[in-house]
Automatic annotation (TrEMBL):
The lineage of its organism: Eukaryota, Fungi, Dikarya, Ascomycota, Pezizomycotina. It catalyses: N(6)-D-ribulosyl-L-lysyl-[protein] + ATP = N(6)-(3-O-phospho-D-ribulosyl)-L-lysyl-[protein] + ADP + H(+). Its EC number is 2.7.1.172. InterPro entries: Fructo-/Ketosamine-3-kinase (IPR016477), Kinase-like_dom_sf (IPR011009). The keyword Membrane does not apply. GO terms for molecular function: kinase activity; protein-ribulosamine 3-kinase activity. Pfam families: Fructosamin_kin. Keywords: Kinase, Transferase. This is protein-ribulosamine 3-kinase. It comes from the Eukaryota. The keyword Transport does not apply.
Length: 382
């Protein structure tokens, strides 16, 4: 088992990390009164809570996350970017990002930190469906943009794997590339499955064009909005006193709003109850064709299934991805021996995506992971 990204810093008390660098990122005049580890153990990061007094004597608390290595720099920077975007459009429902930067702990280990507003959460296991729907709908409405570009200005990460990098003109093309990344990450972790490979190719060649190319609302083309990107139950928290619902740990990008609901159909998380989607659709009715919305959500669920499997060797989510593909293929792919005909260009494009993406994957999984002393992705903090 390789080192975790944060192992180089776990040996250093959080108090030392705070005094070395993080204090300089806090408002001028801040005095740190206490610092301690906080939150559940994480495979890749160390997390803590900082108690301070501000220049005017008020008690202020901060949440800090930190890790070591060159990959950590990308992860921390990306998370800060997403947190900043979330807070700019959903001011009351996401912790305020304070700063991120280098954590100078010596000549051998280079660390990186992220500081956020500290929010005291209750022990509530599942968030209220009505509050979730209102929070997510507010985010999507506030971040709606008329520019028909889908993606992100910087690389964003699902776990420690880049899932979105750059812009595409259409949603089907971006989702196709997202799914291509997820599939190849999974293949690197779990090896090639000919059955999964065949289903994946049919999904790319038939299912994505069939379900995503004709999406409209009120007869108009669909415009992107910013999605959180990772809305499972572990990334929600309810304020212990006010009852305000918060979301955090975003890996967001500009997408179709229904993509956000992908995690609410996955049975290995606890938010797969129909109430969550039902409540959300009160704010944002399904796109046309409405009767295909459940199959679109099945299609979108392939990304989190395969990304989870890529982080957790041998996990059953790979089988779930295959089962979902096979269901969609049965529903939408012509049942004949010449189904590849007429789709050569589409398959060629997928191959081009794969070559480009595999370069990125190899760099992350071999060079950066080796540098950080961790080539084992078999544990994921969800």
């Amino acid at each position: 088992m390789g080192q975790r990204l944060s192992d180089g810093l776990l040996a250093i008390p959080i108090q030392a990390c705070v005094k070395l660098t993080i204090l300089t990122a806090l408002p001028q005049g801040t005095i740190i009164t206490a610092a301690s580890f906080h939150g559940e153990a994480n495979v890749w990061f160390a997390t803590g809570r900082i108690n301070t007094k501000s220049a005017d004597g008020k008690c202020v608390e901060y949440f800090v996350k930190y890790a070591a290595g060159s990959l950590a720099q990308h992860l921390i920077g990306s998370e800060y970017h997403c947190a900043e975007k979330m807070h700019s459009v959903a001011l009351k429902s996401t912790p305020r990002p304070i700063s991120w930067g280098d954590l100078d702990v010596g000549p051998i280990v280079q660390g990186y930190f992220l500081v956020l507003e500290f929010v005291p959460f209750s022990d509530e296991e599942l968030p209220d469906p009505g509050k979730v729907a209102a929070l997510v709908a507010d985010l999507h409405i506030a971040s709606h943009r008329k520019e028909l570009k889908f993606g992100s200005p910087i690389p964003t990460f699902d776990g420690i794997l880049c899932h979105v990098d750059g812009w595409e003109d259409t949603w089907p093309k971006l989702f196709s590339k997202i799914l291509s990344r997820a599939y190849h990450y999974d293949e690197l972790t779990n090896g090639t499955s000919l059955e999964l490979q065949k289903a994946y190719r049919l999904t790319q060649g038939f299912i994505i064009p069939r379900l995503l190319s004709q999406l409209t609302r009120n007869g108009k083309g669909l415009e992107p909005c910013f999605i959180h990107g990772d809305l499972w139950e572990g990334n929600f928290g309810t304020h212990r006193v006010s009852g305000q619902l918060y979301s955090f740990d975003s890996n967001g990008y500009y997408a179709r709003n229904e993509m956000e609901l992908a995690y609410w159909t996955k049975k290995h998380h606890n938010m797969h109850r129909r109430e969550y989607c039902k409540e959300y659709f009160r704010y944002f009715p399904p796109s046309d064709p409405v009767e295909e919305v459940e199959d679109r959500l099945r299609l979108y669920s392939l990304k989190p299934y395969l990304m989870y499997s890529a982080h957790a060797r041998g996990h059953f989510t790979r089988d779930r991805a295959l089962e979902t593909m096979q269901y969609l293929i049965t529903e939408y792919v012509p049942d004949n021996d010449s189904i590849q005909q007429g789709h050569d260009q589409r398959i060629s494009e997928i191959g081009e995506y794969s070559d480009e993406i595999l370069d990125t994957i190899e760099q992350v999984t071999q060079e950066e992971m080796r540098e950080d002393g961790d080539s084992d992705l078999s544990k994921r903090p969800e």
